[in-house]
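Technical annex, item 7. During the second reporting period the consortium partners agreed on a shared format for inverse folding records so that results from different sites could be compared directly. Each record opens with the tokenized structure and is followed by the designed sequence. A conforming record, contributed by the partner at site C, is shown below for reference.
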């Protein structure tokens, strides 16, 4: 079994424990596992690129680094911790957007189906931001600006690859659930696992989808050289 696969399995195991801990488990287990999630995905990305004969994209790695910082910041309570976490995740989204655009996402957005995705995300924001605005107080404008960047990330992710696009959509759902909680607009029924579940699966789909496309491209290049 490839080393990257082992790391991905380790990520899945750690993410499962963390999701369970975020719902019903002890806080110590949450604190022990959450900071490990994005570094494990970064390790998978780096190893998968090496195994495919290439290098991991530094923008994706930087995005995962910012996400790690955001995860740690949001483990603390208070407005300052929330703002720091939001700033770090904004940096993550900017890195992802830059990577997807560099890979040709903007050109693909001219296709009607992908243009519809972009319009759909804007409509989601047009509904959710006014709904959450009264409960966000002084955070309303920063959250609205962050939401636009989040939608841009999800849109360019969809234009890059379908699996990456699903990951971007889940990332968006996770962050909107956080915003709803901060605004006091309610939470989904059941144990409070939905934020971490959608976030972990979303990030995993973004990273594995990217790695899969890069591996396919490297394989095609090698076949052309050998032909």
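Designed sequence (site C submission):
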């Amino acid at each position: 079994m490839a080393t990257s696969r082992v790391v991905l399995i380790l990520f899945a195991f750690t993410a499962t424990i963390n999701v369970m801990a975020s719902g019903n488990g002890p806080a110590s287990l949450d604190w022990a596992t959450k900071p490990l999630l994005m570094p494990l995905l970064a390790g998978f990305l780096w190893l998968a690129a090496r195994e495919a004969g290439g290098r991991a994209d530094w923008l994706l790695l930087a995005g995962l680094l910012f996400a790690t910082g955001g995860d740690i910041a949001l483990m603390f309570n208070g407005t300052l911790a929330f703002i720091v976490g939001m700033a770090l995740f904004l940096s993550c989204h900017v890195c992802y957007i830059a990577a997807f655009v560099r890979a040709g996402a903007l050109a693909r957005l001219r296709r009607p189906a992908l243009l519809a995705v972009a319009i759909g995300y804007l409509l989601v924001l047009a509904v959710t931001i006014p709904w959450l605005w009264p409960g966000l107080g002084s955070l309303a404008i920063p959250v609205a600006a962050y939401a636009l960047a989040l939608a841009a990330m999800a849109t360019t992710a969809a234009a890059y690859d379908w699996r990456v696009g699903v990951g971007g959509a889940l990332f968006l759902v996770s962050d909107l659930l956080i915003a709803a909680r901060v605004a006091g607009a309610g939470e989904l029924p059941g144990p409070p696992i939905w934020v971490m579940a959608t976030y972990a699966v979303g990030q995993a789909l973004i990273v594995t989808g990217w790695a899969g496309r890069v591996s396919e491209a490297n394989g095609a290049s090698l076949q052309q050289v050998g032909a």
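The CA atoms of residues 142 and 221 lie 44 Å apart. Confidence is low (pLDDT under 50) at residues 220-227. All partners now use this format for quarterly exchanges.
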